Amino acid sequence: MTRELKQQYTLRITQANKTELIVILYDMILSYIDEAAEAYEKEDRAAFRDAIRKIRNCNQELIASLHMEYEPAMNLLSLYLYVNRELVHADVRFDIQYLDHVTLVISGLREAYQAVAKQDQSGAVMRNTQAVYAGLTYGKGELTENMADQGANRGFLV
Fold it and tell me: Contacts for 85-90 with beta carbons within 8 Å, 24 or more apart?
């Protein structure tokens, strides 16, 4: 994952509510699948395995975020466990076809959660985060981000 993409995810996370955090995890999985596909094309097993490990870590976060007291949680758990099995197969067999199955499941779930996120009016999970303003400034086609309120009271309150 590029430095710029990491910064984008970090910024999104600081401003996201609970539902948007799940969408971000799905986006991260899809990004890591792209990385795994690039590694597969280059026949770089180490990079492929590293991308699979990162996908599995995101998938574990999704499993940990489930609230088992609600009915859909068991269905989501089944899907996440299926994704994990496919990732293990992809890793052991160095076969990208298993990642196609993962992409199909995660893309469908991402669309569903994106629709739910539009309806979720709860506030950001992280409070007291640094304000970031972005816009076109003096550079030709250059995006500059300015940080506001650099005070000593800056910190993350969850």
Answer: 87/52, 87/55, 87/56, 87/59, 90/36, 90/52
Q: Are 117 and 109 in contact (CB under 8 A)?
A: no
Q: How far apart are CA 27 and CA 18, in angstroms?
A: 15
CA 69 to chain centre: 24
Q: What is the pLDDT of residues 43-90, one digit of tens each?
A: 999 999 999 999 999 999 999 999 999 989 999 999 999 999 999 999
- SS3 call for 48: helix
Q: 150 with 119: CB under 8 angstroms? A: no
